[in-house]
Amino acid sequence: MTKDLMVWMEKVRVRSLVMFGRAAQTIKAVEEFSEACAVLARHLLGQVDNIEEVREEIADAIVMALQMRYVFGEAEVDEWVRRKLHRHSVRMDEIEQKRLAEVRNYEDQ
Ligand SMILES: [Mg+2]
Q: How many A from CA of 57 to the centre of ligand 1?
């Protein structure tokens, strides 16, 4: 994501929350996250003909996720992002080590 796009999203985020309020934007977030879930499920089931439909809903979800980050606390949400990324990285390291061990065991046989 480019810095220009991040700056633009931040401007829209501020304007949206001032214009519509936190409660309305939270309801909108629920709606957009639901639409993203639905289109991803339909994609996995082979029921989406146009991939742009998937991309559009992902974009809606990203825009709303950034608004919810502000509503619920940017620093606090960022800390959770760090924790999640760390945990995910640790899990991938463990899987990688397990796979390497399996390859070594296979080669030793
Ligand atoms: Mg949508």
A: 5
Output the pTM of the full model. Answer: 0.86
φ, ψ for residue 96 (rounded to 5)? -60, -45
- In angstroms, the CA 104 to CA 109 distance is 9
The contacts of residue 69 (CB under 8 Å, 6+ apart) are: 77, 78
Going from the Cα of 42 to the center of ligand 1, the distance in angstroms, rounded, reads 14
Return d(Cα 58, Cα 32) in angstroms, integer. Answer: 9
| SS3 label, residue 26 | helix
Helices 22-44/3-20 angle, 10° precision: 130
pLDDT at 109: 85
